[in-house]
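Q: Sequence in, structure out?
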Amino acid sequence: MTLSRRVAAWSFEHFGLKVLSLGLALLLWMVIAGEETVERGLRVPLELQQMPAAIEVTGDVPTTVDVRVRGGPDALSRVGPGDVVAVLDLRSARSGRRLFPMTPEQVRAPFGVEVVQVTPSAVVMAFEASASREVPVMPASDGRPAPGYIVGLMSAEPKMVEIIGPESAVRRATEVLTEPVPVSGATATVKQSVILGLLDPALRLKSARSAIVTVQINPAPLERTLHNRPVHLRNLDAGVQAKAEPAAVELTVRGDREALNRAAADAVSAYVDLAGLGPGQYTLDVRAESSPEAGVTRIDPVSVQVRITRGK
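A: Exactly. Output:
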């Protein structure tokens, strides 16, 4: 078979499929050419990629950019959150302020959606060398122990943790804080696992995320005995009268000097509760009230005889 006959035979091979493909391509072109083009503005996330390991971003980091996209109404209506993303390649970043251009070619978009503009056209970012060092963990407590007790020494385990971040921020850091340990009403040592945190958002913890904090609760350092404190009769029903024997007690109070001075000025009182009691004779426990800073450690006697009679 001559060369010309071979070419002619190849041209007519699968002729029907070739005609069908040409027709489909022409139809697709006609559909696309006849579809209305729409342009829309979107705010899309800015994704930072290829950050060098020894470099840290400092200052405000842009998280979004505005883009103008163009396409058919159907294509744009199908665009959802995350379908269009601006990508900034930082592999060339080094210490100092740097300017990175933003072009439509740096925006990922679905098929049928064309990115025509990015705003801003450039992004300014500042970088510093990365650094790390160990700083002490500073424990904290929240609340007030029971009256007559004070917060003593506080300790954390681990005592030191490693922080990472921009070199200048690492140099400024002096401590890592803990979530406060609640000690309200405590009369004994409190131990609790708490979260660690840093005030500077540019810094982060290398590994440790929590610490065991121990808060010692100690008896207040001073104690005083208050003599001849009258026993108050509370909640006495109408139409009756009552008398306590003895009518006064001794109260021993523990606290700091300021709290004990207030206690001596009638900030501490003794009482018995007569709610619901009718005429008769009762042996009732004496109770005491004091300021939050001072605690009653002893009542002498601990109970009194109360005689209730009908009123005249």
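Residues 3-33 form one domain.
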